[in-house]
Amino acid sequence: MADTVLGVTYKGGVVLATDQTNARSILTYQHNLDKIKELSSHSAMGVSGPNCDLVNFTEYIAKNIKLYELSHDGMKLSTHAQANFARSELAAALRKGPYQVNILLGGYDTKKEEASLYTLDYLGSLHKVDFGAQGYASYFCLSIMDRDFDENMTEKEAVAVVDHCIQEIQTRFLLSQPNFIIKVVDKDGVRVVRAGKDPADT
């Protein structure tokens, strides 16, 4: 719940953002963690939760999506299919060894030429949304997104909505989250818009 994941759709893409803090209990380990995992050339998931589950689950989903593509003559899974696969894996793990992760999964489907965003929680629920937030940040951000969201927004306007949310978090939230990474998924693929600290600098 202390992690922050934000997502906003706009006309032609999705903006995903997460804080870059890696912490446990009363300790902070790093401020440059990348919590947005690229699943395919045109999809990514922002994940909140313990670092071990975050890494294990995102790697597992990404590698299985790649395996599907290799096993089916290069056929790529749609964003909808990827979200449902992730949901089924979360649900299957519930009675074995649950992943303590909450997710925003965004992607751009080149065939349909449209972007979509899905929210998943650790219990295996799945919903398609226009915008979303995971963690305590949702208390600050959902009202901002609800007011500012417009389905015809440009990328610049969608990033501005996310920036507004980040500003509110850094002003109001009890916990310190000094760095955020923002990524965009559109027809050109997944790219980094801005990062508070370089994730490669470890």
Automatic annotation (TrEMBL):
SUPFAM superfamilies xref list: N-terminal nucleophile aminohydrolases (Ntn hydrolases) (SSF56235)
Keywords noted in UniProt: Cytoplasm, Nucleus, Proteasome
CDD domains for the chain: proteasome_beta_type_2 (cd03758)
Subcellular location: Cytoplasm; Nucleus
Chief location category: cytoplasm
Similarity comment: Belongs to the peptidase T1B family.
Subunit annotation: Component of the proteasome complex.
Name of this chain's protein: Proteasome subunit beta
Source organism of the structure: Cyclophora tenuis (Marine diatom)
